[in-house]
Specification:
Blueprint (H helix, E strand, L loop, with lengths): L9 H10 L7 H29 L15 H14 L4 E6 L6 E2 L8 E9 L10 E9 L10 H4 L8 E7 L3 E6 L4 E7 L4 E6 L10 E3 L10 H12 L8 E2 L5 H11 L2 E4 L15 H14 L3 E3 L20 E4 L1 H11 L4
Parallel strand pairs: 1-3, 9-10, 9-11
Antiparallel strand pairs: 1-2, 3-4, 4-5, 5-6, 6-7, 7-8, 11-13, 12-13
Helix pairs in contact: 1-2, 2-3, 5-8
The structure holds 2,5-anhydro-1,6-di-O-phosphono-D-mannitol (AHM) and magnesium ion (MG).
The site of 2,5-anhydro-1,6-di-O-phosphono-D-mannitol has 11 residues, from strand 3.
Length: 339
C-alpha cells in the first residue's frame, strides 16, 4: 500500500488506484481524468456565475464559445461532452435528461456513468455550495457498441467508482474506486486538484443531524421520535445540532468530514408508498458507496441497504438515511420500533 502524502495530484491518485488492480486497462483512469476536467470547467463557470448577471448574457462566452447559460444546463452539457468522447463510456444517464444518453459513434467504451450535473438546484443562484455527483459501473451488454438502459440499472453495490465535486468556498473532489475515500482541493491558480483529505473516515461519533425540519408536521412517528431523541440526548459527545443546507452534496460533505446523519425520509404527505425525493442512481447510490468506504452507513427508512437496491427505473427515487455509523444504527432502531 502506497503512503498517501497531502499534495499529490488527483491524476496521480487515480493512477495509484489503477495500480491496485493489476489487470486494469487504464480505461477507468481515463474516464476519471476526463471527469476531473469537466469538474474544473464547471468550477470556473460557477465562480463566474455572479458576474454573469453583471456582464449580461452577451458579455462573455464560455470555454465552448457559447453565451453563458443557466448553470445546471451548462454543467449537464459539459459532462456529457467530456464523457461522450472520452472513449470509455458506452451510455450515460443524467438527472437533467429523461432518457439514456448515447455516446459518440466510435467512442463507445466499457463503462456507464450516471450523474447529477449540479445538485442543490435551489441554491444555484444564491452562492450556496452545490455539487456534481457521479456513479460509474462496468457495462453488462457485450462490447463494442452503444450501451443500453440495462447497463445503467445496476445496484449501487456494483459501482466501480463514485464521487462528487463540491463547488463551495473551495472546489473539492471526493471519490472512491473501492479502496478508500480521498478528497482533493482545486488550486484555481494552477488549475490542479491536490490531495487535501487522504483516507477519509467519517467520524463515528457525531454532533449533527441534517433533515428538512419544515416537514416535521408530516413525518411518520418513527422519524419524529428519532429526531426528538437527538435533540434531547447528548449522544455521549455533546448535544446534537441541526445543520441543513438543502444541497445534498454540501450536507453530505459536512457530515463526512465532521460526522453526522442526513435524512430525507418518506412522510405522510408523500405517502408510505412513495419513495421520498432523492434519486437512487445518481444521488443516493454514489454517496452510499462513499459513506460505506469511509466507515459510515446508508439505508432507506425501512432499513434496506442502499447499495443492495436493484433499480428498475433511471430516475427512481429512494428514501435516504446516510452518515456516521453510530447515528444510522440508532436511526435504524427507531425505524424498527425498537426505541
Ligand atoms: P435537485 O436535484 O433538484 O437539486 O434536488 C435535490 C436536492 C438535494 O440537494 C437536497 O438534499 C434536497 O433536494 C433538498 O430538498 P428540500 O428542499 O425538500 O429539503
Ligand atoms: Mg439532485
Amino acid at each position: 500500500m502506497l503512503v498517501k502524502r497531502k499534495g499529490i495530484t488527483v491524476s496521480r491518485q487515480i493512477m495509484d488506484d489503477q495500480l491496485l488492480h493489476p489487470g486494469a486497462t487504464g480505461e477507468l483512469t481515463g474516464l476519471l481524468n476526463d471527469l476531473v476536467v469537466a469538474g474544473k470547467i464547471i468550477s470556473a463557470e460557477v465562480n463566474m456565475a455572479g458576474l454573469a448577471d453583471i456582464l449580461g448574457q452577451s458579455g462573455r462566452t464560455n470555454i465552448q464559445g457559447e453565451n453563458v447559460q443557466k448553470l445546471d444546463v451548462f454543467a449537464n452539457q459539459t459532462i456529457k461532452r467530456r464523457m461522450e468522447q472520452c472513449g470509455h463510456v458506452c451510455v450515460m444517464a443524467s438527472e437533467e435528461d429523461d432518457d439514456i444518453i448515447p455516446v459518440l459513434e466510435g467512442y463507445e467504451g466499457n463503462y456507464t456513468i450516471a450523474f447529477d450535473p449540479l445538485d442543490g438546484s435551489t441554491n444555484i443562484d444564491v452562492n450556496v455550495s452545490i455539487g456534481t455527483i457521479f456513479s460509474i459501473h462496468r457495462r453488462l451488454s457485450p462490447a463494442p457498441g452503444q450501451g443500453n438502459v440495462g447497463d445503467l440499472l445496476q445496484k449501487g453495490g456494483k459501482q466501480v467508482a463514485a464521487g462528487y465535486i463540491i463547488y463551495g468556498s473551495s472546489t473539492v473532489m471526493v471519490y472512491t474506486t473501492g479502496s478508500g475515500v480521498h478528497g482533493f482541493t482545486l488550486d484555481p491558480s494552477v488549475g490542479e486538484f491536490f490531495l487535501s483529505h487522504p483516507g477519509i473516515k467519517i467520524p463515528d461519533a457525531s454532533l449533527y443531524y441534517s433533515v428538512n425540519e419544515a416537514y416535521a408536521n408530516h413525518w411518520f412517528d418513527s422519524t419524529r421520535r428519532f429526531i426528538d431523541h437527538l435533540k434531547t440526548t447528548d449522544g455521549g459527545n455533546g448535544a446534537y445540532s441541526l445543520r441543513y443546507i438543502g444541497s445534498l452534496v454540501a450536507d453530505f460533505h459536512r457530515n463526512l468530514i465532521k460526522g453526522g446523519i442526513f435524512l430525507y425520509p418518506r412522510d405522510k404527505k408523500s405517502g408510505e408508498k412513495s419513495e421520498g425525493k432523492l434519486r437512487l442512481l445518481y444521488e443516493a447510490a454514489p454517496l452510499a458507496m462513499i459513506a460505506e468506504q469511509a466507515g459510515g452507513r446508508a439505508i432507506t427508512d425501512d432499513g434496506r441497504r442502499i447499495l443492495d437496491i436493484e433499480p428498475t427505473k433511471l430516475h427512481q427515487r429512494v428514501p435516504l438515511i446516510i452518515g456516521s455509523k453510530r447515528d444510522v444504527d440508532l436511526a435504524e432502531k427507531f425505524l424498527r420500533g425498537e426505541m
